Sequence to fold (270 residues):
Amino acid sequence: MDSAEGPATEKIAGANIEILRRGKGRPVLFLHPHIGLHGSERFIELLAREVQVIAPSHPGFGHSELPKGMSTVDDMSYFYLDLIESLDLRDLVVVGASFGGWIAAEIATKTHERLSRLVLIGAVGAKFGERDKSDLLDIFATPRSRWEELSFRDPSVWLRDYESLPEEELTAMARNREATALFAWNPYMYNPKLRARLHRIRVPALVLWGAHDGFAPITYGRDYCAAIPDAKFEEIAEAGHFPHMEQPEAVARRVIEFGSSRPRRRGDMR
Fold:
């Protein structure tokens, strides 16, 4: 596929969904963070040199339709189960970043039938700290400049000249923020039931975390990893909350290496 070609709209479970496809070979489903697909392009292109990448805009995000009645990440995870079946994806590596990592974890607690590997990059969605304190930076209560400073080692990978952006990109950004509020406002960025379900993940998992993450502290990442039976944790140097954006070569290499190793599920002979 031409690298300049943009996403296409496909009908999934009755909804019009924007999907970017790149590369050939083993399928990798990339689930983007709450800020959308912008900034993930280099990472996707690097993966696509070795594998087939399927990168949808989540329902309600970008230019994807929000199905009627969908209001939780749990709902969205069932939608992605429909997508995986609709596209007949098998031996699938699911890669989720931040909010997308939350969705990926929810998917993996519900099925392992078509999955072979799970990669969580700065994933959110579970509660590990005290009930009355947030584990994560509150993006709705933090000025944008401060949020960017804490979320990125180098904010320039994300900064945009908003005045020069076309109307359709501004619309996508506004929809991303609205959808984030819908799915992650209250409780903030987590499902109260997810932590107790993480033990159900049957596929090997890799948890990647930026060494300078000011959005989700590295202790949160280690707690996340410890809750998944067959998971290993790795720090990504010189990166904040979005290491796939700041260190796309290093993260893509780890995803390819991890995804190409022999599939093993809990219960297999060691």
